[in-house]
Here is the input.
Amino acid sequence: MPVHPNSLANLNPPVKPGEILNPNGKRTAGASVKEHWNTLARHNLCERELRVIAEDLSQPWARRIAAQRMLRAMESPDLADFDDELKALRDSGINTKVVKKLKTKTKTYTQNNEPVTETDREVELFDRSGADVDRIVHNTDGAPAQSMKVDGFIPIGVIEFVTPRMRGQIQDVEVTTLPPASEQ
Here is the structure.
C-alpha cells in the first residue's frame, strides 16, 4: 500500500549544501557557545587564562560557559585525596585519578569463636574519553547520516527522536505500511 502524501507533508526536506536554515540570522545559544569554544581553542589558552575568563562577570555569558566547559573537560579529580587506602595506592605509584567511585563494605562476624572481617570493594572508573568532548565533536561535525527501515506503523517514540537539528541529516527513511487489522 503506498504512503499517503499527507503523511509526508510536514516533513522537512533534506538540507542542501549552502542552504541557510536560519534566514533571520538569529544565533542560537548553542551556536554562540560553540563559536566562543572554537575561538578560545584557536587562541590555545592555558588553564590560568581560561579561569580568568570563566570567573570574569564582565565577559559575555557564552564565552564564560565555553571557558568553564573547557576547564571541566580538563579536570582530573582524585578520590585518593579523601580515602586512606587509595592514598596508599597512589603513593605506591598507581594512578588513582581513574577511580570515579569507591564503595567499601565491611562486615564482621564470628566463625569458630573467632572474629572474621570481610571487606567488599566496588570500584567504578572514569570514562576517559570524556563525554563533554564527545558532545562537542558530535555537535561540531554533526552526526553520521542515519537511515531506518520501518515495517508497519511508526511508534511515537521513533518519531520523537527526530529533533529539528537532525531533520536534515536523516537521508533514507523507508516506510512500509501494513493493511488495517480488518483486512489481514
Residues 154-163 have pLDDT under 50 and may be disordered. The longest strand covers residues 99-111.
